Hints:
Blueprint lengths: L6 E4 L5 H12 L4 E6 L3 H13 L3 E6 L5 H15 L4 E4 L18 H23 L8 E5 L4 H4 L7 H21 L4 E3 L1 E4 L12 H15 L8 H11 L11 E4 L19
Parallel strand pairs: 1-2, 1-4, 2-3, 4-5, 5-6, 7-8
Helix pairs in contact: 1-2, 1-8, 3-4, 4-6
Amino acid sequence: MWLKGKAALITGSSRGIGRGIALRLVENGAPKICINYLSRESEANLTLSKVRELGADGFICRADVSNPAAIKVMYEQVKREFGTLEVLVSNARVDLSTGFYQSPLDIPLEKFELAFDSQVRAFHLLIREMIGLLPEQGGARIIPISYSPSGRTGSWQPWCAMGAAKAAMESLARYYAVALAQRGVTVNIVSPGATDDSVLSGLPLEVFKMIKDWHEGGWTPMRRMGTPADMGNAVAMLCTEKASFITGQTIHVDGGASLMDPVFPLDIQGIT
């Protein structure tokens, strides 16, 4: 397995999608995982215990990825513990409670900037700090977790800051894919669809149920929401040696939801 002997850092991996990714990487051979979190220490420790149950090890690291100094300190710990770093998954985001979840007409500038700091600036700094920890033989995997539809549409109004930040992060990922290609480093974007145990779980219960029913009703052709394990499978796939010639791409892990056309009723699209 390509991940055998490889160390990974996953930001925002105390729970949800980040935890799902951590566990799938371990199941595919990664022996060392840095589990980054901001406020949920008990959840981060639970992720670490699950990692250890699978025969790997690692450590938890509290760091606010919107803070450049905190990123630097986190990497110092990664260097002490691992020496090198072969896999970076940029998954962390600021919580809904921080106030960025507002329409473009209402959001204060500092809240708008907070979303960008947690995504595109954090991603930029995470990669820059990783460069010094790349293995001498070259080769590494960098995977930001996005939500591509929010960069193309304007319908989810309170998501405007995060949607714009995700779009900017995806663009930056493509620049880095070119910049790092000659080092054998790939940079690919994973874009989840509606996923259980994700940011959607933080919405009011009745809103989450509406979303779940919508996708199970056919707007996701596979008629279910995604799971953290689904996202972990995609990341693990991109980390294999067989994926070494894939870079700068956006992989939609959404059960086909991104294929649907909102112009036509489901019956016309072949969903009954």
